[in-house]
TrEMBL record, chains A, B:
GO biological process: negative regulation of DNA-templated transcription
Gene Ontology molecular function terms on file: DNA binding; DNA-binding transcription factor activity
High-level lineage: Bacteria, Bacillati, Actinomycetota, Actinomycetes, Kitasatosporales
CDD domains assigned to the protein according to its UniProt record, in alphabetical order: WHTH_GntR
Protein name stated in the entry: UTRA domain-containing protein
Species annotation: Streptomyces calidiresistens
Domain HTH gntR-type: 18-86
Length: 262, 262
DNA sequence: CACAGCTACTCGTATAGACGAGTGGGGGAG
DNA sequence: CTCCCCCACTCGTCTATACGAGTAGCTGTG
C-alpha cells in the first residue's frame, strides 16, 4: 500500500479557467521542483492520480505527457513514471582542438572520457565516398565528391553523439584518412602530415527537436532536444579541408567557448 | 469542398506493429518533408483525417501531437493545423563583442538587427540589487551582492531572448551601469571606462526544453527548445566582472564561433 | 449598403470503457 | 528449496461520445 498522493499534491481549483490536465501537470511539476519527488523517484501511478483528482485516465495521461514533453519525467512501460535523472554532462572545452591534444595516441573523445571516469566507445563507423549535399559542398568550397566518415560515440553504453566528417575527395583519397582507423591523433593529425596545417575552426551551433531517426540513433528520451554543431576546419591557406556535422544529445553536453575581447 | 487527403497521404498498414497514431504521424511527416505540405500550409482537418484513415479522433489528435512535439506543426484554435514556417534566424557572430563594435552609439542588438532589416525592441527592462544564486556568486568570484540587469529582446515584435546580467555590486553601484540606459556601447563600454579593460569572455552553451515561465516570456510554440547561454566577462586582471545568463528561442538563433588551432 | 447574428467548421477538453503488453512478486508445483 | 506460472499492477493504444470555444463566411434585417 503506497501512501496517497494527497500528502504531496494539492487539490484542483474548480474556479480556475486553467484546464484540469494543466493544473495536474502544474501540481506534479511543482512537486518535482520542490524536491517532493527527487531524481529517479516514481510518480504516483495513473490510477492513483485518477483516484486522487477524481478525473478520467486520459486527463491524467494528458497531464503526464506535458511533463514528458518538458523532459521532466519519463514513463517505463509496466513499471511507472519516473523523474528523469539529469545525466552527467560532457563538457566540450574550447581548446579541444589544440594541437597539443593531437600528440597522443588516442582520439580526443577517448582521452577525455577516460579522464572523466567514463567508458568511451565508438560505433557504427562508416567510411565512404559520396556526392555531397549542396550545403556541405558550399562549405567545402564547391567540392564535387567527398570522403565521408560517420561514427557514433557512446559513454558508458549510452549514445551521446553522431558525427559525419566530410573531406574533399582529392585531398583524402588514398590516404590514412580513408582508413576506418586513421591512426593516432585522428584525421586532424593526418591532415597536418599531408601538408594542410590547420589554422582555425568555425563552428555553428543550433538546437532543435530531433528527427525520428535521431531519436533512434541516440536513443533519446522524450523532451530531449539535440544540439546540431557544424564545424569547418580551415588550413593556413584558407582552404576548407573538413566539415564535421555533429548531432548531440543536448542533455549530455555543455559546450564551452572562449572569446577574446579584441 | 477541399480535396480529399487521399491524394497526399497513403493508407495504414494493418500488418505493421507500429501504432496507428505513429503511422499517421509518419505519413504526415513524410508529406511535409517531401514538400506536399509547404511552410504555412494547412494540414487536413482532424475530421478529414478521421474520415481518411477510419480511426477515432483521439488517434488523429495523438498523431498530430507528435508532430507538434517535434516542432513541425502548430495548431490554431478554430482554424486548423499548419506547417510551422521556419522563422528567420539571427546569427550571433563570434566577434560580436569586439571592441570596435562598442564604439558606436547603439547597442549591439539594435545595430545588428537593423542591419538585417528587422525591427529591434528591448522590453521588460529591470535593474535592481540582489543576493546572487550560489552559481552566479561562484562565477563572480564569491560576490555577496550583485546588480542585476534583466531585459527581453524582440525582433519584429517577436520575443527571441531574455537576458540577465549580474555584476558585483561594489563595481557597479552608483555608476551608469546602474541606470536603465547605461549609454552608448552598453555596459561593456562603461566597464572599460571604469578601468576594467575586458580581456576575454567565456561562454557555456546548453540546450533544453523551456520551463513554463520561459514559454510564456518568449511566447514559444510547442516543440521549440531554448538555448541557454551563460557568459562570463573577465578583465585584464583576471577578475570576473559580469555574468550574463541568456535564454534564447532556439528556432531564432544560430551561434557562430571561431576556434584558433593553437 | 452595413452590420448583427447564425451557422458550420475548426481545435480544446473531458469522460468512460476496452483490450494489449511489459514487469515483478507471490504462491504453488516439483 | 527452487523454479515456474499466474496474477496484479503498470503504462500503451484505441474507440465513441459530448460539450466548449475560436473563426469565418453567409444571410437576413434594418
Amino acid at each position: 500500500m503506497t501512501s496517497s498522493p494527497s500528502a504531496l499534491l494539492g487539490a484542483l481549483d474548480p474556479t480556475s479557467d486553467r484546464a484540469v490536465f494543466r493544473q495536474i501537470a502544474d501540481h506534479l511539476r511543482e512537486a518535482i521542483d520542490k524536491g517532493r519527488f527527487t531524481e529517479g523517484a516514481k510518480l504516483p501511478s495513473e490510477a492513483e492520480l485518477v483516484e486522487h483528482y477524481g478525473v478520467s485516465r486520459m486527463t491524467v495521461r494528458n497531464a503526464i505527457s506535458i511533463l514528458q514533453g518538458e523532459g521532466l519525467v519519463h514513463a517505463e512501460h509496466g513499471k511507472g513514471v519516473y523523474v528523469r535523472p539529469r545525466p552527467p554532462v560532457r563538457r566540450l572545452a574550447s581548446d579541444r582542438f589544440a594541437r597539443r591534444h593531437r600528440e597522443q595516441g588516442k582520439s580526443a573523445f577517448t582521452v577525455e572520457a577516460e579522464a572523466a571516469g567514463s567508458r568511451p566507445e565508438v560505433d557504427q563507423l562508416e567510411v565512404r565516398e559520396e556526392r555531397p549535399s549542396q550545403d556541405i559542398a558550399a562549405r567545402l568550397g564547391g567540392a564535387r565528391k567527398v570522403l565521408v566518415r560517420r561514427r557514433r560515440y557512446l559513454l558508458d553504453g549510452r549514445p551521446v553523439e553522431f558525427a559525419s566528417s566530410y573531406l574533399p575527395l582529392d585531398l583524402a583519397r588514398n590516404t590514412p584518412i580513408a582508413q576506418p582507423n586513421p591512426g593516432p591523433g585522428g584525421i586532424y593529425a593526418r591532415l597536418e602530415e599531408l601538408g594542410h596545417r590547420l589554422e582555425r575552426f568555425e563552428e555553428e551551433v543550433r538546437a532543435r527537436m530531433p528527427a525520428p531517426a535521431e531519436v533512434k540513433t541516440l536513443r533519446l528520451a522524450a523532451g530531449v532536444p539535440v544540439i546540431h554543431l557544424i564545424r569547418t576546419a580551415y588550413d593556413t591557406e584558407g582552404r576548407a579541408v573538413e566539415v564535421c556535422d555533429t548531432v548531440m544529445a543536448a542533455d549530455a553536453y555543455v559546450l564551452a567557448y572562449q572569446l577574446p575581447a579584441i
